[in-house]
Amino acid sequence: MTVDTGRRNALLGFSSVALGVAALASGSARAEAGSVVPQGAHALPDLMERLHKAPRRRDFKTVPMILDHPDQWDDTSLKEVIAYRGARKQVWDNTDIGSPWMDLMRNSLNAQVFSFGHRDFLIVSATHGSAHLALFDQGMWDKYRLAEMAGGDFKTNTLVIRKAVPSELSDFENPKSVFGPAGNTIPALQSRGVVFMACHNAIWEVTGKLLAKGVNPDRLPHEAIAAELTNHLVDGVVLTPGIVATIPELQLAGFHYAK
User: Nearest Cα to 169, choosing from 21, 34, 32?
Assistant: First the structure.
């Protein structure tokens, strides 16, 4: 069957909108990549811009086991997501780095946007378990041998590597674009508005496992290693005090739960 993608796009009224992806380097936000969102979307690009401007602290020296003050997590960004004005929003409970979690979120996003025409559809990745390892940059993977925890085929953090070719919305049937399997990465999904949330409790538990294995090249205490891992979250990630506790907050705000 031949699909007239040009006509279909015209009917949907889509076009590319370049926006800065929420990013952070040494405590300050910086624009990094363009994003592809449909023309007519209002709430989603507004949220992306707000997250881009929101402060994120990544200069911790130590962090406690339980966070008890908003300045210890990305409180502004978290509140922006919880207050999202779009009618359709989904939170994915992602726990296994080796599962098809990226693929499932991408397929959900594609169907909501291109099949149902819900331009402002928002996906949040509530990330913990081994999936949380994908939220650390390659420097932390190298220093703390995180590939050993990830297992499987993860010798490096391939989920932070861009694989998709530069894309326009007219490429939505192209599997090499951000809309196809090549778009199953954190940067590709972020460029489409997906918000990846990190879990402080997961960071603390990863640190405990490192210490139990004797992986501590700088001979740091638990609180300092957890702080270093926090400081090296992938650009654009939103740090929460705990994902399991944050999921109900999102559900109360109208997010539909998916696992």
Answer: 34
Place of tokens 């996906």: 123
Q: Checking DSSP bridges between strand 24-25 and strand 28-29, what pairing results, if any?
A: antiparallel
pLDDT in tens, 231-251: 999 999 999 999 999 999 999
For residue 33, count other CB atoms closer than 10 A to its CB.
17
Beta strand 122-127 pairing with 28-29: unpaired
pTM for the model stands at: 0.87
